[in-house]
């Protein structure tokens, strides 16, 4: 039905066509005969955006409605992925747009390819924020995603001579049709300087902050459409600018250069996303970024409160702020400062209000990833906040002293200030103490948080701890990026699964043994694999065979994620082929993708190793009739569109206890891949859902990892006692993959043989054995297909809709609309 009656811009083919042409004329400003594909992309994007704006106004109404609590999702990262395809799906106009494009003689797929994705995140945490905005809106929960409008997002990755090369991400260079700047929505943000005590009119002691400088944050709004529900939420990102007043001061003195310099500094704050996904200590600009976006967001929330005609007492009922890791946790001190210093609220009342307003999600257990700021640095940028943190800490620790008299060690462990050696502010402690709820992102992760990283806090307040297992949105990750599978599913069970994954997808189970359904299922996978093979051929000249098993690991490159364990298995197969022990080897294509933090040397060396193995195999026909290895450069959301749907096997092989949840594991499994994985993060829950028989589990569990480390782990002995492993490592060392160079991979080998912090060698044999079971299973086409169907059917729990419902019920206490 293409001719639905409508108020506002219509969604019929004719109306869409007219709208696209109109935007072409009036916004692109070219005659169609000179049009580039990008020009057409802009015209289509404007037309689609217009169809969201229709619902924009009613959404603003909801923000003014004082009876509805707003969720403020505070996150330093939002990895939204391309907007156009998603907006078309969520507006439910894909048929009409396709038809309109055809009539205009333009190819919709080519148009969609034109969009440069906003890469405003590193990986899992940023993408989770994006999936959550989709679900919040689909569930009609009023929400604003608050973050930073980085001018340069995560770098683009190129591979040169097998090494990663980083290229600046100039995502705004061709304009961004999805954002709407709100110049009138801007707030001042102070930085640096000192504090000063004074006595107020009533004789009370107060403190004011005399900053060194002030910058301004301007709001850039991007509409977030819900799935076919005429609802829009807001992604509100702050761009830093110079304040007019500072310019004028300099101009008054005739200091033109000084004024421009000031402007350059102010604009630096939102210039670039930090490209590491583990916290990096000692970066002044990073702390300034965090404070900048948090300060703007809190001021914005107080403005909304005023707009609703409410008072500060109403704040916790009007807004709930979710802290996406500790990155925005300075918000706790900032709200205290606003309430105490600026609105003159008394401390206890302000503290109660603050704790009711915030909740904190932890995303990591890696000790080196826990954010901490050196005291001098913190004092330099946020002198008043440091005083406030001291006050929070001193009141908190005196409570602890009362509860546990004489337990000085506990005081030392729980303090917000780390005082062993150089002093640091521990942001996870601030976030935990200042929130009414703390959550981990998978069942195991939450358990480990309670037993380990935040154990003392859990003992103090067990009721404040929750688990919310992560989820991903089936709109983007199935319907948009795997349309063939989506249609096949809808043919059998209807379309409700798109918004009711948990209850409806399970109905696929009854087709698991249906031979004609199985054949259709295999056909879809085969076509998806063929698409990926074509793309890799066309873009990079790579040759891969869609009849082989596609074994895929895509995620940030990290030692704890153990891409090098995967590489060791490949070399094991290589050895077997060279030694003519090929029985039981199933033809495979190993596909890797992922970025390494630019300063993470070993991660970059792992990329080089993968490419070196790939090249050696490419040049060896004896080996490449069995296996191939490719590295898909620049893995991001847009490229993910071609990858998840084409996988037979999903690699989720982190050291147990290290991957908080993982979300790629969910995307693969709900697109029909089977998982080879460790007992880690959400893998455990995925296995519980899909069934042990439909999941390839291997390796140590978290308790065993802990035990083996405590009892002394000796990787060199593991190497010496396992001939197969020894051959694999010695082959790398011999230069077999590096044209005889015996030095290049030494740092990696030394790390593995030296202390092997992530137990790669320990899990090696279990992994190789498990891979052998995978190969055998893949050879039974029918059984494999059945397992694949059951994986998809049983993945309903991992919709981000379920995660958001959990947050609503347990943490935010809001009812989905
Ligand atoms: C912090 C300070 C300074 C510089 C960088 C950072 C920083 C930036 C990004 C620290 C961490 C991150 C990102 C972490 C992340 O993506 N964690 C992942 O979160 C996912 C969603 O919960 C989980 O599924 C993954 O297991 C977890 O690794």
TrEMBL record:
| Protein name according to UniProt | Alpha-1,4 glucan phosphorylase
Q: Give the Gene Ontology MF terms in alphabetical order.
A: 1,4-alpha-oligoglucan phosphorylase activity
Which Pfam families does this UniProt record tie to the protein?
Answer: Phosphorylase
Q: Which domain of life is it from?
A: Bacteria
Role of this protein = Phosphorylase is an important allosteric enzyme in carbohydrate metabolism. Enzymes from different sources differ in their regulatory mechanisms and in their natural substrates. However, all known phosphorylases share catalytic and structural properties.
Name the Enzyme Commission number(s) assigned to this protein: 2.4.1.1
Q: What is the lineage of its organism?
A: Bacteria, Pseudomonadati, Bacteroidota, Chitinophagia, Chitinophagales
Xref: SUPFAM superfamilies: UDP-Glycosyltransferase/glycogen phosphorylase
Q: Which family does it belong to?
A: Belongs to the glycogen phosphorylase family.
Q: Which organism is it from?
A: Danxiaibacter flavus
Which InterPro entries does the record associate with it? Answer: Glycg_phsphrylas, Glyco_trans_35, Pyridoxal_P_attach_site
């Amino acid at each position: 039905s293409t001719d639905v009656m409508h108020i506002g811009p219509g969604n019929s083919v004719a109306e869409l066509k007219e709208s696209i042409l109109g935007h072409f004329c009036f916004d692109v400003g070219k005659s169609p005969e000179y049009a580039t594909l990008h020009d057409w992309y802009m015209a289509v994007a404007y037309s689609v955006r217009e169809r969201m704006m229709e619902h924009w106004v009613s959404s603003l109404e909801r923000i003014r409605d004082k009876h509805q609590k707003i969720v403020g999702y505070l996150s330093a990262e939002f990895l939204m992925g391309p907007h156009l395809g998603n907006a078309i799906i969520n507006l439910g106009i894909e048929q009409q747009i396709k038809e309109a494009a055809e009539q205009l003689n333009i190819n919709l797929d080519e148009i969609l390819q034109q969009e440069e994705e906003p890469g405003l995140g590193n990986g899992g945490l940023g993408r989770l924020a994006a999936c959550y905005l989709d679900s919040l809106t689909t569930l009609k929960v009023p929400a604003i995603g608050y973050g930073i409008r980085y001018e340069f997002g995560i770098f683009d990755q190129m591979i040169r001579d097998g090494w990663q090369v980083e290229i600046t991400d100039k995502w705004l260079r061709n304009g961004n049709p999805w954002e709407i700047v709100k110049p009138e929505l801007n707030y001042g943000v102070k930085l640096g300087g000192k504090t000063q005590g004074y006595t107020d009119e009533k004789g009370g002691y107060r403190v004011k902050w005399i900053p060194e400088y002030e910058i301004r944050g301007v709001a850039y709004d991007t509409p977030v459409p819900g799935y076919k529900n005429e609802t829009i939420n807001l992604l509100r990102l702050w761009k830093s600018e110079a304040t007019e007043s500072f310019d004028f001061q300099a101009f008054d003195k005739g200091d033109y250069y000084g004024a421009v310099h000031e402007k350059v500094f102010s604009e630096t704050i939102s210039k670039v996303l930090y490209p590491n996904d583990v916290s990096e200590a000692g970066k002044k600009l990073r702390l300034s970024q965090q404070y900048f976006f948090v300060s703007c967001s809190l001021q914005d929330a107080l403005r909304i409160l005023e707009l609703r005609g409410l008072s500060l007492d109403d704040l916790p009922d009007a807004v709930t702020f979710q802290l996406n890791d500790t990155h925005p946790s300075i918000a706790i001190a900032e709200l205290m400062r606003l309430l105490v210093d600026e609105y003159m609220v008394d401390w206890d009342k302000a503290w109660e209000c603050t704790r009711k307003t915030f909740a904190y999600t932890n995303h990591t257990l890696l000790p080196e990833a826990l954010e901490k700021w050196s005291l001098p640095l913190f004092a330099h940028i946020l002198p008043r906040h440091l005083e406030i943190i001291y006050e929070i800490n001193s009141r908190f620790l005196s409570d602890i002293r009362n509860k546990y008299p004489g337990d000085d060690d506990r005081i030392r462990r729980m303090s917000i200030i780390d005082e062993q050696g150089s002093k640091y502010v521990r942001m996870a402690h601030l976030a935990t103490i200042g929130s009414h709820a703390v959550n981990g992102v998978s069942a195991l992760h939450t358990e480990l948080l309670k037993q380990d990283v935040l154990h003392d806090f859990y003992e103090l307040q067990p009721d404040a701890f929750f688990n919310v297992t992560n989820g991903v949105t089936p709109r983007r990750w199935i319907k948009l990026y795997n349309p063939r599978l989506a249609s096949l599913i809808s043919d059998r069970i209807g379309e409700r699964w798109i918004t009711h994954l948990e209850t409806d997808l399970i109905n696929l189970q009854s087709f698991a043994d249906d031979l004609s359904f199985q054949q259709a299922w295999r056909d879809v996978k085969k076509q998806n694999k063929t698409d990926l093979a074509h793309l890799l051929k066309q873009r990079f000249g790579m040759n891969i065979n869609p009849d082989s098993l596609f074994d895929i690991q895509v995620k940030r490159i990290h030692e704890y994620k153990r891409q090098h364990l995967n590489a060791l298995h490949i070399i094991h197969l290589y050895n077997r082929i060279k030694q003519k022990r090929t029985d039981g080897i199933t033809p495979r294509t190993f596909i890797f993708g992922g970025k390494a933090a630019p300063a993470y040397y070993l991660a970059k060396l792992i990329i080089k190793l993968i490419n070196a193995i790939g090249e050696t195999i490419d040049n060896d026909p004896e080996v490449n009739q069995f296996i191939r290895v490719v590295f898909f450069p620049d893995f991001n959301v847009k490229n993910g569109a071609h990858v998840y749907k084409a996988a037979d096997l999903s690699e989720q092989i982190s050291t147990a206890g290290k991957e908080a949840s993982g979300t790629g594991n969910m995307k693969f499994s709900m697109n029909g891949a089977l998982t080879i994985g460790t007992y880690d993060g959400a893998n455990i829950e995925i296995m519980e859902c899909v069934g042990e028989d439909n999941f390839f589990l291997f390796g140590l569990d978290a308790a065993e990892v802990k035990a083996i480390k405590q009892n002394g782990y000796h990787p060199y002995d593991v190497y010496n006692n396992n001939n197969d492993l020894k051959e694999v490592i010695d082959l790398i060392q011999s230069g077999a993959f590096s044209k005889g160079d015996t030095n290049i991979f030494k740092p990696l080998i030394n790390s593995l043989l030296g202390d092997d912090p992530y137990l790669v060698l320990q899990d090696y044999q279990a992994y190789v054995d498990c891979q052998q079971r995978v190969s055998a299973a893949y050879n039974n086409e029918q059984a494999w297909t059945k397992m694949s169907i059951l994986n998809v059917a049983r993945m309903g729990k991992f919709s981000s809709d379920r995660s958001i419902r959990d947050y609503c019920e347990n943490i935010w206490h809001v009812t989905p609309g």
